[in-house]
Amino acid sequence: MASSAAHTTANLPLFRRLVSEWEAASQASQPTSQSGKIEPSRDDSFARRSGKDILVAFRTRPPLPEEARCKFTADENIYANSRMNEEVGPQATGAVAAEGGTSEAPEPDLDAEFCPGISVPPGVDGKMVAHVPGMKWNGPTLSHKVFEADLAFGPDAANEDVYNRTVLAQDMINLALGGGVGCVLAYGQTGAGKTYTMESLERRLALDLFPAAEALSARFLASQGDQPGQSATSESPSSVQECIFSFSVTFLELLGKRATDLVSPSAGDTADGTAPSAKEVMIHENKLGEVRPLLLESQVHSSEELQDLITRSLAHRRTSPTHRNATSSRSHAILTIRVKNRMVPYADEGQLILVDLSGSERYEDNKAHNKQRMEESREINKSLMNLKECVRAKAKATVEEEAFVHIPFRSNKLTLLLKPIFDIELRQPSKTVIIAHVSPHIQDAAHSVNTLSYASPFKMSPPKPTGPVVYNSADPRTWNHEQTVEWLVAAFTNCALKRKKGINRQREKAAKALGKKIRPLDMSEPVDLAVRVEEFCPAPMTARNLGRLYMNEWVEKCLQTRADVLKGDINGEGDADQAQTDMVKKMAVEVYAKFNDLLSTARYKTQHDMMATRRKITAKEVYGEVPKW
Fold first, then answer.
1. Which of 21, 91, 410, 524 has a 20 to 30 Å separation from 65 between CA atoms?
2. Rounded (5°) CA angle 550-553-556
3. pTM over 0.90
4. Residue 189 annotated as binding?
5. What are the tens digits of pLDDT across the range 306-317?
6. 319 marked ligand binding residue
7. What does the domain layout of the chain look like in residue ranges?
């Protein structure tokens, strides 16, 4: 039988001794060497892109000074004091590290010193142990439950370590700059440190985003023969990223089904000092299937502007006192950074989505809530359960290619906003990191077990191949080097033929205006390819290697290996150079889209076939059978 927080506090000396004995035994059985901090390199190696689409991480924070004494005591006036602090104003203490933490409170008489409820075994990456107090007929007991994830961060791990091993190691910045979608979700009990982690990741990402864009812009311009800063739109030649990328930012707060804009000035205080009710923002799919709420999109041009916007938006987020946290976030905060490549305007926008989820609560946490707080807790838990189903289904779909997996992302406003990472019909590459936060206190062990049980099933490993790969013309993952080159030659040849037809139509139109005729187009004549395919895909590179390229890297590689195919098409040397550059970029994006479409279809073949069958059935129900002539 599980032990209550009050019973656990009463038996702290016993549990502290049992935990110490377990830690001593665990250290004796583990190897003495430990890897320590991992600092991934910042190069564009393929190794960082061969990981999983969904990464699961556990994190526990360090306990705050006097936190155990303030939180876990029989004095029921603590919650009343926190409500009083809401009216007077919270004190700026070190409680920021616990997502608001606790404000100043009277010193209780009960001895409730800290006892660890979570441990990260040394030398073992990705494991976290929860020490769960219990009660049997012969007295208190302590069980040790092990949970596995891809990463596990103990109380000594700094935010810099979390950033390096999640956002940086998963290459999310380059993914977004290349037209993909990167998402970070922070989940856990209220007061477990989610906001502390997410605010740090947001500010750290803001510092790295623009330098990465500058480096990529300089490389991209060099590949097409331009000098860095030559076509920059700003007065400063060093602002290279302004001519290549544009960044727009939105910050949304979601409470139940009601969404508000955190960036809009209407979300702040009015002139008389009262807080107005922010205007509700509707969340729905448009005719193109996009989910773009009518939020204020702010254009940012530097790390300082982005950090300032994040700070101002977070100040508008709603907090309320609860039994566990005096300044608990009662809503989901979703920061979205959209990236547009101005040099390739017809390419997809990249996105970085950072979600600070509202804290989950058990009955013991919300039994003192009023009617409004109870309704908030109900909506929060409902949205978190929908998110769990979607993440688990997406993780399953990435490893079980032969099974149809339904991802119910339209069942809740939160998951609908995260459609770019859940909808397998979309062709954009995506990566998701879920950081499950747990409290370090043994009194919260029951809730920590629920949190770890929630996130642990998301960790899935793809099945290992059981035999030799059989060639399939529709699956690029089965191609060798020769087959990859053959497909690339055919793809670029089709693009060249389309361009040849377009030029011929223009000439026919011009000749017709002059009352003349031109020779019919001979499609059997060989065409010159815009890209030297053997240099674009040198041996022993295969389609698997090309599949790890981002869109901008694919275009950059095409520009570096382009061939002169515009002889005689355009008069003027400068115009010909610019026209060839534009033509190569357009063809590169078109071939990249076809290649990724093949990859996506091959990975989710069963899902795509099932959806295509459903669309045919729907068409028959609406329009009837197609008549046969």
1. 21
2. 155
3. no
4. yes
5. 999 999 988 888
6. no
7. 211-265+276-434, 476-612
